[in-house]
Amino acid sequence: MTNKLRTIEIVDQYIDKLPEEIQQITVELRKIILDSSPHLKEEFKWSMPNYSYNGLVCYLQPAKNHVNLGFHRGNELKNKEWGHFLHGTGKSMRHIQINNMQEIQKDAFTSLIKIAVALNHD
């Protein structure tokens, strides 16, 4: 299970209210995010879990039939090795839409999160 010292109660409560399959996806993605970097801090902003280190890094956005793993500086990840996973046309944010547990690619997502954290080292 996710390191309880790095999670916050409001996010626990939010996840507990999600439909079962969406909850499973969200819990697994949360674990991947927190395991990717000891620097990431969990927050609850804009009605969803966000993760920051020297600024915003990524977020989880559960919906009715999927969960988006989003990156606040996703446009800067586009040309990286795993950039083909990213969708979105906004100025900077990009996301990966996960529809079921089988679509979770731990190694790829971990690499993207580590690259996203590195963007905030400046």
Automatic annotation (TrEMBL):
This is YdhG-like domain-containing protein. Residues 23-116 form the YdhG-like domain. It comes from Ureibacillus xyleni. InterPro entries: YdhG-like (IPR014922).
